[in-house]
Design a protein that fits this description.
The chain is an alpha/beta fold. It is 34% helix and 12% strand. It has ten helices and seven strands. The strands form two sheets. A four-stranded mixed beta sheet has the order 4-5-6-7, with helices on one face. Strands 1-3-2 form a three-stranded mixed beta sheet, with helices on one face. Strand 2 and strand 3 form a beta hairpin. It starts with 6 loop residues before the first strand and ends in a 19-residue tail after the last helix.
Length: 281
């Protein structure tokens, strides 16, 4: 298992006009530290001014992303991968796939051209998930749902679990998670239907989300509901058009198939919801 003694969060300022102001930056905790980098590194990125590495997984951010929000995103990533926070990744097989695929998380400020930045990733990094600065809530549910819990999990399940256990979590029709999803949707639908059966409890209706994407979203809804992320006051009304099982009890009693998969200790899914305070009391 990969040891994480101290998680360093390095801030790289490639923006020429502001770089000199950030050389002495120090921010973070005992386990996650944010610092400025040497002048020799300032020209490495064209679009991304800040970066971190969590168990070998890269996170890059644009200049306007707040330091505390980038720290939060890195902490959530660390907590998902090392859920008991003992400094060891919980599922090495999943981490190996993430590293092999060179996945990364893009944290971007509002108002920037996301498509332009995404077309120019850091060298040799291809598979990424985006997360906007305004979507990050340091406390889940206050003032809004913390999208970090969703986007970081997408990276881990889509490129980690799906690759490490293709027969179980593969994002294709024949996997076990796909079979569970088809039950939750009230049948098999290669594309998003015009309407779902009345007995369906997973009714994601984004027409741009293909079958594999539907599995990514389904896994997110189920696991975060089991962990308690979706049950704060008013949340069910916000999400019931996509997902109706917003608590652990509802998932356990209704979606028996996915509950069995996500709580099977063999796969070492998180059992505690990340709070953005990795290894802190």
């Amino acid at each position: 298992m990969k040891k994480l003694n101290i998680l360093f969060l390095f801030i790289i300022f490639s923006c020429q006009d502001n770089y000199e102001n950030c050389l002495d930056l120090e921010y973070g905790t005992e386990y996650i530290k944010i610092t400025g980098v040497s002048k020799s590194e300032k020209n490495y990125f064209k679009y991304f001014c800040k970066t971190t590495e969590v168990f070998g997984i890269k996170i890059y951010a644009t200049e306007g992303v707040k330091n505390e929000k980038l720290l939060h995103a890195a902490s959530v990533m660390a907590e998902y991968l090392d859920n008991d926070e003992n400094g060891l990744v919980d599922n090495q097989k999943v981490l190996d796939k993430l590293i092999d695929k060179k996945v990364w998380l893009l944290v971007i400020e509002e108002g920037l051209d996301f498509d332009d930045a995404a077309r120019n990733p850091p060298v040799n990094y291809h598979h990424f998930q985006d997360l906007y600065n305004e979507e990050i809530s340091l406390i889940n549910g206050s003032p809004r749902f913390d999208a970090t819990l969703e986007e970081v999990l997408h990276v881990i399940t889509q490129h980690g679990y799906a690759e490490a256990y293709p027969d179980i979590f593969g994002e294709n029709k024949d996997s076990e998670v796909a079979k569970a999803m088809d039950i939750a949707r009230g049948g098999y639908f290669k594309n998003v239907p015009n309407s779902y059966p009345t007995n369906a409890w997973y009714t994601y209706n984004d027409q741009s989300c293909d079958y594999s994407c539907q599995i990514t979203e389904y896994t997110y809804w189920a696991l975060t509901s089991i962990l308690g992320a979706q049950e704060y006051s008013g949340r069910l009304n916000q999400i019931k058009n996509e997902w109706r099982l917003n608590t652990k009890d509802k998932v356990e009693n209704t979606d028996i198939a996915i509950y069995g998969l996500l709580t099977n200790q063999e796969y070492k899914f998180p059992t505690k919801l990340p709070n953005g305070k990795y290894r802190l009391d």
